[in-house]
Model the fold of this input.
Amino acid sequence: MGYHVEIDKKSGFCSGVIQAIRCAEKALEGNKKVYSLGAIVHNNEELRRLQEKGLNIIRHTDLPTLPKDATVLVRAHGEPPSTYAQIEQHGLHLLECTCPVVLKLQKKIKQEHTRIKPHNGQIILFGKKGHAEVVGLIGQVGGDALVIENETDVNSLVFTGGPVSLFSQTTKNPEHYKATAHQLRKTITSRGLDPSLLTVFNTICAQVDNRHEELAHFARNRSLILFVAGKESSNGKVLFQTCKSANPRSYAIENPEGISQKWFRSGDTVGVCGATSTPLWLMEQVAETVRNMP
Ligand code: SF4
Done:
């Protein structure tokens, strides 16, 4: 039949992921043994490509077992200080690939903690509990931060009466963050506290922030959307929801094998897009598969 297919030009790796992958590829060229603490990118296809070049994915518990000259890559999400201490303690080489945006946020949270702690202050982080970036962020303040995942979590917070500083994980949905900040201010007021105690820091990555609007626009203007992302990608889950709200005929797939012919209607205009962890080559494969569909 042959469908009209377009790839969203704005989809694909963010600068943080590009930098981490380049960093890994450069180290692998030197035939170094490179061990990435966790998946360098939440995309199995891209991971496989890097693993074929010699990249090893490890967990924190593997650090003591690595050979002495091993190079440990800290991925774009960043790590808490305890990880750096462990790398040093085991005599391993550090390959620092934390995204500069995340590094800046880590520093900011630490500074803010130092500023408000003497006034009985509290740091609140809007993010996914247990997510690597969140672990790295709260690690900057020795875990002295409250993590909330949604507006409902706000209700269970216990305030100390001091300043409250709210931050967001870099890849959260900007609208949800706004709603959560609003709910937090309302809750502080309803508990008889001064709402000016709350400071909201806009820490969603600009590359993610803009993506929601751009993606919604792209999805609205196509009759069918194929959203390509790894199942593990937290950014992928958030961006897919944006697609789905803009166009109910949006389908999430990991690779071309995930495409179902049942989704298509005659004359469909098909949009292919993805998360900040989706490689362009994979979106191209998906587009090509659709173009060649009978
Ligand atoms: S989404 Fe933004 S903060 Fe996160 S890795 Fe990419 S560039 Fe960095």
Remarks:
- The two ends are 5 Å apart (CA to CA).
- The mean pLDDT is 94.
- Residues 14-17, 76, 99, 101-102, 170-171, 205, 207-208, 276 surround iron/sulfur cluster (CB under 6 Å).
